[in-house]
Each structure stands twice: as C-alpha cells, then as structure tokens.
Amino acid sequence: MRKFTTFTLFLFGLNVCMAQGPALNVKWNHTVMVSKSTPTLQVVGNPMLRRGALMHDGSFNALKDLRADYVRYVPWFPYPKLVVAELDAPVAGKTSWDFSLIDPMTIDFFEATKGHSIIMNFSTIPQWMFKTEKPVAYAKDPNEVDWGYGGGTELRDATMKELTDYYVRLISWYTKGGFTDEAGKYHKSGYHYQIPYWEVFNEPDFEHSNTPQTYTQKYDAMVTAIRKVSPKTKFVGLALAFEKPEWFEYFLNPAHHKPGIPLDMISYHCYANANNYQKFDAYEYTLFDKADNFLNTVSYIESIRKRLSPKTKTDIDELGTFVSDEMRSQPISQAYWNLSASVYAYFFIGLTKAGIDVIGESQLVGFPTQYPDVSMINYTNGAPNARFWVLKMIKDNIKAGDTLVETNIDANNGDDLTAQAFSNGASKKVLILNKRNKAISVKVPAEFKGAKISTVDELSADNAPTESLISGDTIELKPFAVSLVTLK
Q1: Would you kindly state where each structural domain of the chain is located, as residue ranges?
Q2: pLDDT tens, residue by residue, 14-45
Q3: Quick one: how far is CA 196 from the chain centroid?
Q4: Count of other CB atoms within 10 angstroms of residue 472
Q5: Mean pLDDT, range 48-59, rounded to an integer
Q6: Contact at 8 Å (CB) between 101 and 85?
C-alpha cells in the first residue's frame, strides 16, 4: 500500500479542485439593478426583401412573429432604385418621383411590425443634391449592387431646404396620404401610417464625411422640418459607425442645437469582426475580445451622455459579427452562426448591465454581396437561423423592468461561460452562453432540477430552440450554445 504524506494529499486535493468543472451560482435575493433594455433588430432594405425574392416570405413572416419594438428600418444606398424616391433632380417643371419599387418592401415592413414601435431611417440622400465634379450615375437594374452611389460632401443648397423638402415629401407619402411636388403636382399614396421614431441619416461619420458640426446642423434642420408634418414623431440622432468621443461631446451638448430641438435618443454601432486571414479556430477569442472592448467604450460614452443630456436614451442599433474577407466568399458554417448568436447574447447581457435602452441585432437579411455574415435568415432556404432564434428567445423571456440578480460562474475556466439571472416576481430565468468551440458541462444549483431549459446550438440549427427539463445537477452547453433556464 502506497504511503501518502500530508503534502501529497494536499497536492491531490488541489488537483481535484482544479479539475472540477464550472459551477453556476445565483443569489436571487441580491438585486444588482433593474433592466431598462429592449432587445430588437434592424431591417436593411435590399433585393432579397422584394416580393417574389427567395428570402421575402420567410423574412417578413419571421419579423411579424417576433413582435419586437423599436425595429429599425433602413433602405440603404447600394440599391438606389429601391431606396431613393427622387433619383433625378427636377428640371423644367418635371420631377422623377417614383415609389413603385420602394413601396412594396416598405409597406410589407409596416404591416409586419403593425402595433409595435418602429424606427424609420431612409438614410440615403439623393446623390444629385451634392456638389460633384460630374453627375453620379445610378444602376438601372434595381437588384444590382452599386457601391458608387453615395459620394459628395457638400450639399448644393447650403440652406438645406432642398434636403428637408425631400424628406418632408417622403414622410408625407407614408403618413399624410401624399404630397405636392416641386412642380405643384399632387402625388396620392393613400397611406396613413404612424412613424414613432425617425433616425436622421446613417453612419454620418462615414457617409458623406460629415463632422459633428455639419451633422448637427443637418439634424436640427431635419427635425424642424419633419415635426411640421409629423408632430408626434421622436428622433434618433448620430447612428455612428465609430464611437468617436468628440461626436458625443458635441452632439449631446444642448448648446450646440437650435432652441427646442429634442435629443430623444442617440444611436451607434458595433461589429465584432474577425481579423484578415484569420482562421475560424481563433474567432471565438477575437470576437469576444472585441465585444469586451466595445462594452468598455460604451461605459465611457454613457458617462458623456449622463453628463450632457441625461434624459436622452441610447439605441445601439447595429450589433453583429463579421468573418474575414477571405471567408466571406465561402459557404458559412453552422458553427459560425452559433458563435455569432452567442456574441449577441453576450452583448445583450453586457449592454443591459450598462443601462442601454435598446439593443438591436443586425440584420434581418444579408446574402452574398450584401454582408451574408450578419444575416438572421438563412439565405439558402429563407428560414430563420440561430441569430434570429437567440434574439427571439431573449425577447420573449427577458423584459425591461426585470430585475438582474447576482450571478457568477465559479471555476478556473469560468471565462468560457457568461450567465445572468433575471427575476420579475412571477418567474426566474437564467441566460447562459458558451463562448467556446467545445462542449462544457456546468454544475447548477439544486433548485434547478425540473426547470425548463431552451437551447439554441448546433442541434437546433435553423429551427426553434430545443426544450427539455433539467434532470440532474449539471447541464451541457454544446459549442457556442445559448440557453435559457426557466425555473418553476
């Protein structure tokens, strides 16, 4: 028989301790904060949302079934005929107003989100309104991607009346039943939709190379004009591509705006992207590391907002992940969709803790040539993918007003998992996600036995979350799985 010394027994015990798997701990009586966050998504207008397109029916059915608030609708510049209602400047009493290609997907969006708040953003300014060396042509084929439509930095009408008149007419088309054009001709639509929120342009720090000063001038002019025809509409400003502090410092200072201009909400974006030439094996670290960097930036931006305009809400309305350029031309694996879904769940937990009001996943529809890696619909079969199902699982179960309680993962490798428990008085729920491309078994408290667990992972694929009951003291999270535990 082997003789064990005290030191040997100590090392044996230490090794056993180190070998133990992660354990989930929840203190339901220890309140951390009350959530004010709403999960949602953005819908970018593009050819796959046209009636008859492969992704149309599945996309709008999924959007209607989601029943989300604050859904952001952005017809975007690479498809000018689908997003710009006046493609040519008025000449000799003739105008080019034409909604025939724009209306079908826009009306389908209005109908799919009926009864819920929405954020409209026809972000693309007609190209002819900008000073350029020569006229900028646009693709004649509405389905042809046209990245060249969007140049110019200086408006030809410095008063911005031409700009604001365009948007007043566009909004009147959808809310007032029609409008009178520049030549005095009335265009009847018959539409009387409501626009709860209007977001003023998209990524102005990138598109048309605005400065904080020039954007703020355009914002004030747009808000002043739009309020005359849609007085109940609230406004979202900035929609920044990059989180540059000087933009927030300038825009959120009421002194830089005309009297009476509201600062209802600001918005900005984040895409946790893979590095060039990076292999998928490294994505699990890069994407979550970049998510962490963004969350740190959010804390800094929130300090600026609270100091300058504390009543202004925040909508982070584009959250997604990108593959490397080399991988974008290849079929995207199921593992990537699960990883991207897990990153959104991670963003949701972190941004909820940061007190962000609206947490928007990007985007409903993507496909080859149009950011396929951010799609929430499978562009090969039109079915919702893992990114959609994680959003829906969160949206259906975790609400603004729910209480966050103290939650932690107790283990040496606890960084592989993230969890947060929520309580609303009627139920207790825990959102837990696996950040790694490996299965991990998690020890759960005894009270979890018999609880329902819903999971989006490699097994659920393009289907709704799988559901089962917890029968023992552990649960297994497959690679990049996102699970929601609902206690009795």
Answers
A1: 20-32+404-487, 37-397
A2: 444 444 689 999 999 999 999 999 999 999 99
A3: 18
A4: 9
A5: 97
A6: no
